[in-house]
Design goal:
The chain is about 0% helix and about 35% strand. It is built from no helices and ten strands. The protein has one domain. The chain is elongated. By secondary structure, the protein is mainly β.
Length: about 170
């Protein structure tokens, strides 16, 4: 398993939050991107909008590029750090498959897929989630609810209680 670390772990920085993301990286065919050899993930606090500046999560955790799997999904770890001002924001992960020697970059007109995490961060806490990457240009935003993100509990307990609306263990 390869680790792609986007920012340093919080050492004495209880105002930050970290999402330990296990990314299930597909092969090019499963990604719907024949010929692609890598995927770039861009972490944002808002979705990309035409003509607008791209809001980044933090200076250190903006973009990571991972090599596509050769046969079936391959797990790779990415640590996403939210700065104190973005701990309560949703997280948007823009997914772009590419090939060739040039840098894998986004253009607003490219066929990208988007994953939206409702609430992946909690101040001073580590949370985790396993993300199977969507196919290139998937038309719908893949929504990940806060109860799908593990954290703030031990053992195999569910992240959320059964109240209405559910309350995440990190919110108690």
């Amino acid at each position: 398993m390869r680790w792609a670390v986007l920012a340093l772990a919080l050492v004495g920085c209880a105002d930050n939050a970290i999402l330990e993301l296990t990314v299930e990286v597909p092969d090019a065919d499963a990604a719907g991107a024949p010929g692609a050899d890598r995927v770039t993930l861009q972490f944002l606090t808002e979705p990309i909008a035409a003509g607008e500046p791209t809001p980044m999560l933090t200076e250190a955790s903006q973009v990571t590029t991972l090599m596509l799997a050769e046969d079936g999904p391959a797990p790779q770890r990415v640590s996403v750090v939210a700065s104190p001002g973005h701990v309560e924001d949703p997280l948007f992960v823009t997914v772009f498959y590419c090939a060739g020697r040039s840098p894998c970059t986004f253009n607003r007109g490219d066929a990208v897929s988007v994953v939206r995490y409702e609430r992946p961060f909690y101040r001073g806490e580590f949370t985790s989630h396993t993300l199977a990457l969507p196919r290139q240009g998937a038309p719908d935003v893949l929504e990940i609810g806060r109860c799908d993100v593990a954290g703030c509990i031990g053992g195999t307990a569910m992240p959320c209680d059964l109240s209405t609306p559910p309350v995440h263990a990190c919110e108690r």
